[in-house]
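[Automated response] Your request has been received and processed.

Submitted sequence:
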Amino acid sequence: MAATNRDLDSEIRAGRFREDFFYRLCGDQIVTPTLREQLTDEPGDLALVVGFVARRLVGEVEAPAVAEEVLSWIRRELGGDYAWPGNFRELEQCVRNILLRREYRPRPSAGKRGNAPDWEAILSSGSWTAEQLLTHYCRSVHARTQNIEETARRLDLDRRTVRAKLASAGGAGQRG
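Generated structure:
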């Protein structure tokens, strides 16, 4: 059994992974989405995962209060489009840090601005539909503007389209 977070097809094309070795390993492949991809598809899952981690850390009784504090902090400080480059382990550390220190400081990602999604990786993977791209882009701009009208203006879209994309993504606020 072997696991990797690398796109082996691109690694082979770039000459960093031997193609013959790939065929030794690829009998059965299980591809799991990143935490960011999961949350893009199902934004409500963030509350479920935070609740799960909180229950493991503080038990059933205190977990709801801790989970709400963590979710509130994440929304306020990281925004709804945070990329979670460390996946579940990073989210787990985030919950622990907020529980202990009332804050979490993400590791600055090399070559990326803030917590912006890695658009190059998303686009080169070719795994997202145009609909998914537009939905995520609307959410990303709305997270910064906090206003549907301004988001629509910046993206040159009708406000009803932006509202629909936000609703399909789990509903950002309906301000503006």
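Summary generated for your ticket: Confidence is low (pLDDT under 50) at residues 110-114, 171-176. Residues 35-101 form one domain.
If you did not submit this request, please reply to this message.
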